[in-house]
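The authors assume throughout that readers already know how a fold can be written as discrete tokens. Each protein is reduced to its one-letter sequence and a matching series of backbone shape codes. I therefore recommend that a typical entry be quoted early in the introduction. For illustration, here is how one protein appears when written out as sequence plus structure tokens:
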Amino acid sequence: MKSIILLFTAVIICSGLGRVLLSRLKTLALSPLERFAYGTAFGLGIAAYGVLALGLAGQLTFWPVTLLWVALALFGIVGSIRNFQDIVQIATRRAHSHRGHPSAFSLSLANLIAPATMLVLAAALIFALCACFQPPAGHEWDVLAYHLADPKVFLSLHRITMLPTEHHSNFPFLMEMLYCVGLLYDGYALANMFHLLMGVLTVAAVLGFCRRVMPMPAGWAACQLLVTTPIYLWECCVAYVEVGFGLYVTLGLFAAVMAIEATKRSRTDSSGMTKDTERQRNLREWGTLAGIAMGFALGVKYLALIPFVMTFCLLLWRRVPFRSCLAFCGIAMAVGSPWYIKSLMFTNNPVYPFFFRAFPRSVNWSADRAAPYQSEQSSFGFIHGTTTPAKNPVLTPWRLTTNPERYTNLGDYTFMALTGGLYAAFILPLVFMRGIPRHVVDLLLLLSVQLLAWFLLAQVVRYLVSMMPLAAVVAAYGMIAFSRIGKRRMERGRGIQLRLLPTLTALVVIGQTQILLWSIWTLPTSTKAAHDSGMMLTSLSFGDVLKNATEPDTHDDYLTRRLDLYESVNWINRNTYAGEGIVLYDEARGFYLDRPYLWGNREHSAFIPYDRMHDGLDLSRWLRTNGYKYVLINLNWSPMRRATDNPSGHELEFLRSWYIESPVPGEWRFLLADAMRRGLWVPTAGTAHGVVVMEVTWEESMAPGMNGHQP
């Protein structure tokens, strides 16, 4: 309950702040939903930048952060009051309208879809809120590796700095700044809720935009399609960044499309004179909103550079005045630039760790590290690149439905990784339809280019989440278009198949909703029995969600079952001193560690000077000299593991086989093996579930050739 109250407070503050900042814009005056979405999203972005400033100044503690929020609240208090007045006014107006004009019951699609979708949205919101209390476990790999792990380290240091072996820490971190606030005040639950809030704002933005440019049911249809997409609902419940990234990109693209409309749409007064002043004002305001939103998107992920460039090209192609196009670029780059300047100052590379050839002086990085990192991104999906056969991108929508496991991380594939096939079913036929409004064509072009870039760069299914709001809007237009075709055929008494289109359209969306509910209620989570039987899993189970939300004392048991290294991490936290560091090998998920830690694999960073070491004694000496007394090796993710191997319960046996009795691949792994052979690394009682915890026993007084006991 504390997290919900804190989140509600943040919404009041940020929406009020955004309302004040956008108070002069006339374009949003008649659309409360759009005003709320843009205002709150911009307010959250400003709050994140405030946290960044405090972190860079070494003031990332309770009172400076609290004073920041108080200052934001005071600045936006007038806007908060106006928002409250609007809510009261809208509620009063609707109450009077229902009393004064009772409407007859109708079974039309337009009258049924709104209440049905509102019910679905309310149920999804309640379920997602409960799921936010579920501790991140094995399927939330990147959450435990850096989305929450890095903010936790920043809070422990009271400052934002470069984490030497964690190259992600130099990414644009707008969402992670909000996660810092969540962890500071109430832990991972509040951090998860900040991401859920981004999903709520996306729904508001989609509804507001569709009401502005499409028939009434389109917005509701788009929202129901969006929230019942398994991977989108799952991402809203965990502290990833794709939903937040998608919000800012979607807001920017919607505003850009409206700016294009402003250049073409001219209204005339009673004298027949064109209102150029109003047109120019609309163009300026929508262009400003697009620039700010895209700038915040640049602050969430490097991938925002793709929609940013794409939007600029579309504005030019649609003959938006060049000055307005430059203004869009200037605003976006100004808003997004702090993250790139920070990365340049810390690492000599504004887009670290990418483009090493252009920035060869990148700190703790090298060409032989950049190559496997890029190769990992290219390993998802099917063969892709500029030389790929033309059929591969064409087949991608089908493969996302029939072979979804190819687009996920190893071990992460569950029902909640699915995208469904309704986006393709409703969008692809639009290519063959005539009379599509230009703004829908623009959205379809923007979506198509993003999908092509996704196909060529990294076919990771999570990256599609940021495109789903746009896809849902285009698909919703397809639903309405098909329903109208069927209605016209029905009126003419022709085409029995097409007359069924409205019913079929409603049924398939209802079907996706029912399948999602079935998965949450019926499918098991990641249990050993389920894995062994080969049955489908879900990462959001109603039973687990309810238990974690209502019984916090069961979290340890849940994590022990769902996270292989949790028991070992718990042992480290209980049995080591606060300043004793840990080095993680074949493991990156350090969120639950309460000790200083490094990522040990050579591929991550050049910070540990493996290239200057000759044996295990050199490595052990470096570790102890720099304050790292323990080593954690996750054998479950070791490159030496075969599909039939199960290290759990046989950790020392596999450790001896892979490191001590056999040659190990790679020079840096030889150093680990040599340290074990010399007895410089001694297994501890923290070894469990395929994870080995070893103490580095080297001391200054030890002789260079000294041998000890072996595991």
